[in-house]
Amino acid sequence: MCANGRCELGFRTVIVKSRCKLESRLNSLIIRGEQEKHIFLGEIETLIVQSTAVSLTAALLCELTKRNIKVIFCDEKCEPSSELLPYYGEGSTSKRYKMQAAWTSVAKAAVWQSIIRRKILAQRDVLAAQGFAAQAEMLTGYVGEVQPDDVTNREGHAAKVYFNCILGEGNSRQSGGFLNACLNYGYAVVLSACNREIVAAGYCTQLGIHHINEFNEFNFGCDLMEPLRPVVDSHALSLETGDPEFKRKMADILNTELCSRGKRTTLDVAIRTYVRSAIAALNEGDSGRILFPGDEYTEEDYEL
């Protein structure tokens, strides 16, 4: 078992990776293993159960849900496989579900256009930082070509250029390897953060604006996490290949410090603002009001 993160309330990521029993008592998470450890629940932002040898009490799960603490469960390979989410995030959930179902195709297309433009801009910055100047310039050209709902699939074209650079020619996201393992773990953590904020705002994770897979419980979360993927990519690329602590380090990605519109914050706090601004944009049909994490781009950047 290990715990890492900040000392401020709500900013600890706790990773449990050895046989033990988890329960709650006196507002604390009790970890009963070879030694007994106590962690105040108010300090925990995310709990990752990395071992299938861990047992949990129903009382603890209820308490974690009440406190809106992200809980991620891993499979026998220690890969994230599921998460815990409450049914209801706030009192007017049914009203918000109706609003979500009524989002217009025009509003959804405009928001998806903004999301993909922001994603490609962020991918461009990752390539530039990695020394791929020509490819970064190519992605700059794609940004101005993104249409509503990305009907010409600039996202796909950019992804091909992007992953050929960071993964190497001939490799793909399905190829396996250390970097892909880092990306998979980091993406799961960020998706969980988006899902938590969607539910906390009273909306449904299943009803996406672009992802519409009937078997995907997190279509809307998958939509909103797209501009955040390059943050995970950059974090993964900073690790030494084969780093045995990569899962702990990728789990800590939500504590990444960034500057958003002149204010210093963390990725997790910025995600909260971003998700709620994206929902407001969909409700009001105004994609210009989305507040992307770490976004220092101007309208001119989106019109390249």
- The termini sit apart by 48 Å
Structural class: alpha/beta
**Overall average residue pLDDT:** 89
Q: Name the CATH class of the largest domain.
A: Mainly Alpha
Q: Looking across the biggest beta sheet, what order are the strands in? A: 1-2-6-8-9
Oligomer: single chain
Major beta-sheet overview: 5 strands, mixed
Element string (H = helix, E = strand): EEEEEEEHEEHHHHHHHHEEHH
Total of helices: 11
The CATH superfamily of the largest domain bears the name CRISPR-associated endonuclease Cas1, C-terminal domain
CATH architecture of the largest domain: Up-down Bundle
Number of separate strands:
11
The CATH topology annotation of the largest domain reads as Four Helix Bundle (Hemerythrin (Met), subunit A)
In brief:
The chain is of the alpha/beta class and 304 residues long.
Q: How would you describe this structure to a colleague?
A:
The chain is globular. Helix 3 packs antiparallel against helix 4, helix 3 (105-129) runs parallel beside helix 5 (154-166) and helix 3 (105-129) packs parallel to helix 8. The chain is built from 11 helices and 11 strands. The chain has helices spanning 58-66, 93-101, 105-129, 133-143, 154-166, 178-200, 219-225, 229-237, 246-251, 267-284, 299-302, and strands spanning 2-5, 12-16, 20-25, 28-32, 36-40, 44-49, 54-56, 70-74, 80-84, 257-260, 263-266. Strand 3 (20-25) and strand 4 (28-32) form a beta hairpin. It has a 5-stranded mixed sheet with strand order 1-2-6-8-9. The protein has a 4-stranded mixed sheet with strand order 5-4-3-7. A two-stranded antiparallel ribbon has the order 10-11. The protein folds into 2 domains: 2-84, CRISPR-associated endonuclease Cas1, N-terminal domain (Ribosomal Protein L15, Chain: K, domain 2); 93-302, Four Helix Bundle (Hemerythrin (Met), subunit A), CATH 1.20.120.920. With 304 residues, it is of the alpha/beta class.
